[in-house]
Amino acid sequence: MPKIYKDQDADIKVIKDKQVAVIGYGNQGRSQALNMRDSGLKVIIGSIKDKSWDKAKEDGFEVMDIPQAAEKAQIIFVLLPDEVAPDVFESKIKPYLKE
User: Fold this and answer.
1) All residues at 6 or more sequence positions from 33 whose CB lies less than 8 Å from its CB, including other chains
2) Among 21, 56, 68, 80, which is most exposed with the fewest C-beta within 10 angstroms?
3) Total Cβ atoms within 10 A of residue 61
């Protein structure tokens, strides 16, 4: 039988002081970024300069190019369309990953 985790099973304090980057600000990126910010996490957005960039700014996020966000963050959520995620990861995120 699978284990079911609930809110009381998690301790947000473990990541409270970490910088979180959400890469992509479409349907998934926006929803998750807003939820994480509402939970008290420090969230930045990595995006290309398009309407998603503008929407993230409008929503009050610090927005930057994807490589800058990847370099600045300790936790990275890649929430991009499947067809672009592998290339973006390899070229714009992977070079900035830290141990």
Assistant:
1) 22, 25, 43, 45, 56, 59, 61
2) 68
3) 20
Question: Alpha helices, DSSP H only, in 1-99?
Answer: 27-38, 51-58, 66-72, 85-88
User: Could you report the per-residue pLDDT of 37-89, keeping only the tens digit for each?
Assistant: 999 999 999 999 999 999 999 999 999 999 999 999 999 999 999 999 999 99
**CA–CA separation, 27 vs 40, rounded Å?**
21
Place of tokens 């910010």: 37
Domains of the chain with CATH codes: 17-96 (3.40.50.720)
Read off the pTM.
Answer: 0.91
Radius of gyration of the chain (CA): 14
